[in-house]
Amino acid sequence: MRQHPWHDVSYGEDAPEKVMGIIEIPKNTRAKYELDKDSGMLILDRVIYSSMYYPTNYGFIPQTYCDDEDPLDILVLSQIEIVPMCLVEAKVIGVMQMLDGGEMDDKIIAVAANDMSVAHFNDVSELPEFWKKEMRNFFQDYKKLENKTVEVEEFQGRDKAMEIVKQSIEDYKKKFPNNQ
């Protein structure tokens, strides 16, 4: 029996401090891959219209649910490009809250727990300012050529991010009570 990455993979024993992230998009690519909710496979949603590249590895936290009817997004900082559908233990350090087409679309910011080049970061406030500017700029601008608007709010710290992770786990349990 084939497993579905959203429903059959654990979010991790140490959540909300550390979570299991499933990477959809490696950093430094223009390909926008998304989890196909029916099959559990990745689908190429589109090639980003602009000449921008994802600044971090991008994915989701399994068994979470958000207002946009998707699992909770996660940005995993690492010195390497992590391949799609790879499970990565990620230490939660903050959240970038944003509105995408008027809908809340939080992005949990985490560091790859087993990458010593970033594992020492414990809160988004410790990140170099340039990294935060790069993430903000990417998400504000990557849909402009599609005539879509994205508003990035202020970055929030680890405590706020962990609250969001907890809430998305509870929301998943309410939405999918038979997946427990």
From TrEMBL:
<feature type="binding site">
    <location>
        <position position="46"/>
    </location>
    <ligand>
        <name>substrate</name>
    </ligand>
</feature>
<feature type="binding site">
    <location>
        <position position="142"/>
    </location>
    <ligand>
        <name>substrate</name>
    </ligand>
</feature>
<dbReference type="GO" id="GO:0004427">
    <property type="term" value="F:inorganic diphosphate phosphatase activity"/>
</dbReference>
<feature type="binding site">
    <location>
        <position position="105"/>
    </location>
    <ligand>
        <name>Mg(2+) 1</name>
    </ligand>
</feature>
<keyword id="KW-0460">Magnesium</keyword>
<dbReference type="GO" id="GO:0005737">
    <property type="term" value="C:cytoplasm"/>
</dbReference>
<feature type="binding site">
    <location>
        <position position="73"/>
    </location>
    <ligand>
        <name>Mg(2+) 2</name>
    </ligand>
</feature>
<dbReference type="Pfam" id="PF00719">
    <property type="entry name" value="Pyrophosphatase"/>
</dbReference>
<dbReference type="InterPro" id="IPR036649">
    <property type="entry name" value="Pyrophosphatase_sf"/>
</dbReference>
<comment type="function">
    <text>Catalyzes the hydrolysis of inorganic pyrophosphate (PPi) forming two phosphate ions.</text>
</comment>
<keyword id="KW-0378">Hydrolase</keyword>
<feature type="binding site">
    <location>
        <position position="58"/>
    </location>
    <ligand>
        <name>substrate</name>
    </ligand>
</feature>
<dbReference type="GO" id="GO:0000287">
    <property type="term" value="F:magnesium ion binding"/>
</dbReference>
<feature type="binding site">
    <location>
        <position position="73"/>
    </location>
    <ligand>
        <name>Mg(2+) 1</name>
    </ligand>
</feature>
<dbReference type="GO" id="GO:0006796">
    <property type="term" value="P:phosphate-containing compound metabolic process"/>
</dbReference>
<keyword id="KW-0479">Metal-binding</keyword>
<keyword id="KW-0963">Cytoplasm</keyword>
<protein>
    <recommendedName>
        <fullName>Inorganic pyrophosphatase</fullName>
        <ecNumber>3.6.1.1</ecNumber>
    </recommendedName>
</protein>
<dbReference type="InterPro" id="IPR008162">
    <property type="entry name" value="Pyrophosphatase"/>
</dbReference>
<feature type="binding site">
    <location>
        <position position="32"/>
    </location>
    <ligand>
        <name>substrate</name>
    </ligand>
</feature>
<comment type="similarity">
    <text>Belongs to the PPase family.</text>
</comment>
<feature type="binding site">
    <location>
        <position position="68"/>
    </location>
    <ligand>
        <name>Mg(2+) 1</name>
    </ligand>
</feature>
<comment type="subunit">
    <text>Homohexamer.</text>
</comment>
